TrEMBL record:
InterPro entries: Endonuclease-V. This is Endonuclease V. Its EC number is 3.1.21.7. DNA repair enzyme involved in the repair of deaminated bases. Selectively cleaves double-stranded DNA at the second phosphodiester bond 3' to a deoxyinosine leaving behind the intact lesion on the nicked DNA. Its cofactor is Mg(2+). It catalyses: Endonucleolytic cleavage at apurinic or apyrimidinic sites to products with a 5'-phosphate. The keyword Iron does not apply. The record marks 78 as: Interaction with target DNA. GO terms for molecular function: deoxyribonuclease V activity; magnesium ion binding; RNA endonuclease activity producing 5'-phosphomonoesters, hydrolytic mechanism; single-stranded RNA binding. The lineage of its organism: Archaea, Thermoproteota, Thermoprotei, Desulfurococcales, Desulfurococcaceae. It is found in: Cytoplasm.
Length: 220
């Protein structure tokens, strides 16, 4: 129930879990040389429902090998900074339905570049224990500084993100969970093909729209 959601407790929890994300970056689980599978995660909404999708891709062949979706009640309204509590349940459920466990997650949203350093990319990564990267189309939090021709986003005293320019668009890439910033940027650049979004998120967006259309047709 929406009225039972404790917003103050949620923000306190984010501040506490941020510390675990920082610790995870110091000894990252992500082994990019060994990584084969990446899951693109996205969410959409229809008639009070949150639709989470997970699209699994082979990093070597850059092809979709599996995709799943999950539908849950959108338990709380949209609140800036608390998006994860609205979208993560469906996204995580879809992720757990995949036949194979991904080596890394690419999430539509922010990680450390969040007011409390715990955006949806960090949330999903920490909950599942899978290294994660956040990719967003705009800056949510942090200060941009250009160093050596690179646009870094500083947040909470660390280099939390990088602005990657591609195809006339800007992508705000951030540390999610248990990856370094350099690893996150390399993963995103590796998966940038002929679209403005990295391929895992492009495919997740396509699938999300497809599922939403299907549900809209079924719902009276």
């Amino acid at each position: 129930m929406v009225e039972l959601f404790d917003y103050s407790r949620a923000t306190r929890l984010q501040r506490e879990l941020f510390k675990q994300v920082i610790a995870s970056v110091e000894r990252p689980l992500f082994r990019e040389d060994e990584a084969r599978l990446v899951a693109g995660l996205d969410a959409s909404y229809t008639r009070g429902l949150s639709v989470g999708v997970a699209v699994l891709m082979d990093l070597h062949e850059m092809r979709v090998v599996d995709k799943k979706y999950a539908v849950v009640r959108a338990g709380i309204p949209y609140v800036p900074g608390l998006l994860a509590f609205r979208e993560a349940p469906g996204v995580i459920r879809a992720l757990l339905e995949l036949e194979k466990k991904p080596d890394v997650l690419m999430v539509d949203g922010h990680g450390l570049t969040h007011p409390r350093g715990f955006g949806i990319a960090s949330h999903v990564g920490l909950v599942t224990g899978i290294p994660s990267v956040g990719v967003a189309k705009s800056r949510l939090y942090g200060e941009e500084k250009v160093e050596g021709g690179v646009r870094y986003v500083y947040a909470h005293g660390v280099k939390a993100g990088v602005v990657v320019e591609h195809g006339g668009a800007e992508l705000y890439v951030s540390i999610g969970y248990s990856v370094t910033l350099e690893q996150a940027v390399r993963l995103v650049k590796k998966t940038l093909l002929g679209h403005k979004l990295p391929e895992p998120l492009y495919q997740a967006d396509l699938y999300s729209r497809e599922v939403k259309r299907l549900l809209d047709r079924k719902t009276p």
